[in-house]
Each structure stands twice: as structure tokens, then as C-alpha cells.
Design a protein that fits this description.
- It is built from 5 helices and 9 strands.
- The protein is α+β, with helices and mostly antiparallel strands.
Length: about 260
Amino acid sequence: MTWIKKKLYLAAIPLSIGLSIASAVSVRANSLTEFRVTSKNRTLISQSFTPPDRGTPPATAGAATRGGCDAKQNLVTPLMPKEKLTLTFDERPTFYWHTSKSNTEAEFLLLDENDDLVYEANVNLPKKPGIFAFTLPPEAPGLKTNKQYHWYLSVYCSSEFTDDTITVEGWVERTKPNLATWIKLNKSAPKHRSKIYADASIWHEAITNVAQQRCIAPYDSKLVLYWNQLLTSVGLKELISESLTNVCKVENYDTK
């Protein structure tokens, strides 16, 4: 743990909450592409997120600061439910944050249940403030099912490489869809899957699906409404009007 204390200036908090979800074949169609704005697939089913029934999650360190950072400036805010534990079907899910700064650097760390380092990467923040995304790349180890991972994002408070950082954290767990969810996903068009994901408490795919639809049709008022509903349902109402920065260029794994 010495190395992570030096990098983050806080100790990882172990998490042990059980989860049992029936297994089925995972739905995943991979392609790395930039979303194209078209007149197709503009319909999306309205939905709000249903948090997983996981009991009371462990206490989290929240935002930790080092050096001259001011925690009150909301430099970075994770887009996730307040429980700070999110589920995914994907081996390499996409994470979302909001930043009030631009042209700064960030460091992403992923730890396993034993607080051992799984993956580490530098993240370039977008050129302007807003909501940005980061997808675990192909070279990153895939998440194992029914295993919980602790992630950290440390953002430099200035464009200079100093010890002035602010760190946010959360947990992610990969699971498999039960048979009913698997059938619904396979019968539904991608533009209709966000509600299925949200009802199944699968946060990463739910928010990514809605974001994809907004990239396809950024001026569709219905899609803006659905985005607002999703964020509001997890206590992120203050971010609904924030712009999407690099979101439309992240990995698109649900387009067929």
C-alpha cells in the first residue's frame, strides 16, 4: 500500500458486499468509432435509474485533496449514483466525470479487492469544462465477473505537474445479465436499451446508451429530457445542462 499512498495520499478502503445475479450470455458488440449525427434512431424510452439492492455501502473517502487544491471548487465530480458502487456487464466499461477545469491532466487507478494495482493510466482532460468519459482500453485487464474493483481519479489542480491534486473514488463490479434481462436486450434496438439497463441497475451501460443517443441526435429535445431524468434520478441534477466534451469519441460498444 505504500505506492498508492504516495500517489493518492489516501488509503484504499476495502469493500465486501455480496451479490448474486443469475448468469447468462453477456451482450456486447465492440467497435471503436466516433458517433455520427444522423436522422435515424432518435427515439429513446424515458427512464430513471434503479439503484442495486446492495445494502448500505461502506463509507468512502469522497474527494481528497493535496497541496493547494480547494475541495469546494468542484474540480471533478463522478457521474454515478450516491452509493458509489456501480454495476456493469462489460469487461472494460466507460466511466464519466464532470470537470470545472480544462487543459489539465488526471491519473486513473484501478485496484482489485486486495488493493493490488490492476491498471493505471494518464487521462487527458478535455480542452473545455464539461462531462468527459474514459473507457478502459483493450490493453487493460478485463474486469472479472462478481469481483469488485476500487477506482481513483486524481486530477491536477493546475496545468503544472505538481503535487496539487484532488482525488475522487468509487467502486465498480462486473456482473452478468439474468435470462429475462438478456432476452430483453436481444429483442430491443440499441436506442431502447437504456431503460432495460437502468431497470436492471446497470449504471455504466445505462448512462453510455443515453449519451450515445445524444451524440447521434444532439439537438433532439426528447433525448435531452431523458438525459436529464437519468442524472436527476441519481442526484446529479446540477450537471444536466453541462456539455458533453469527449463523450462522442469514446468506445461505442452498443450500436448493433
